[in-house]
Amino acid sequence: MDYALWLYIALAIFVVALIIAIIGVVMLIVGMKEPLKKMKGSANNLKDRMGKLQLETTSLSHNANELKEDMQMKSEKITALMDAGKGTVNSVIDLNASVRAITGNIASRVDHNRDNIAEVNQWSNGAMKLLVALENRNITKRSDVTHSSTSFSDTKHY
Asked: Which domain of life is it from (predicted)?
C-alpha cells in the first residue's frame, strides 16, 4: 500500500479525532455554562450578603460609638453627682462642727451664767436679810416710840 493511502487514513483518523475533540469541548463548554451561571448567582448573592453585612457592621459601629458617648456622658454625670455627694457630706460635717461649736459656746455661757445667778442670789439674799433687819429695826423703834408716848387707846388700828 501506498504511503498516500496511509496518509489519507491518518488524516481521516486525525479529522475524526479533531471533530470528537471539538464536540467534547463544545459539550464541556455547554455543560459548564449552567454551573457557571449558578456560581455567578452565588457570587452575586455573596456580594449582596457582604454588602448587607458591611451595612450592618457600619450600623453596629455607629451604635457602639453612640453607646460609648452615652456611657462617657453618664460617667461624667455620675462623677459630678459623686463630687456633689462628697461636697454634701463635707457640708454636713462642717454644719455639725458649727452646731457643736455653738452648743459648746451656749453651754459655757450657761455655766458662766449659773455662776452669775448664784452670785446674784447671794447678793439678793444678803439684801433681803439687810432689808429684813432694817425693817425689824424700824418696827422695834416704832414700837419703842409708840409704847412710850401713846397709850393703847390712841393707837389706830387698820
From this structure: Bacteria
Other CB atoms closer than 10 Å to residue 120's CB: what's the count?
11
Mean pLDDT over residues 86-115, rounded? 79
The pLDDT value recorded for residue 1 is 61
Q: Which residues contact 11 (CB under 8 A, 6 or more apart)?
A: none
Q: What is the mean pLDDT of the chain?
A: 84
Q: How far apart are CA 75 and CA 116, in angstroms?
A: 60
Cell triple for 138: 424700824
| Cell matching residue 60 | 453596629
- Cα 63 to Cα 58: distance, rounded to the nearest angstrom: 9
Distance CA(53)–CA(32), nearest Å, equals 30
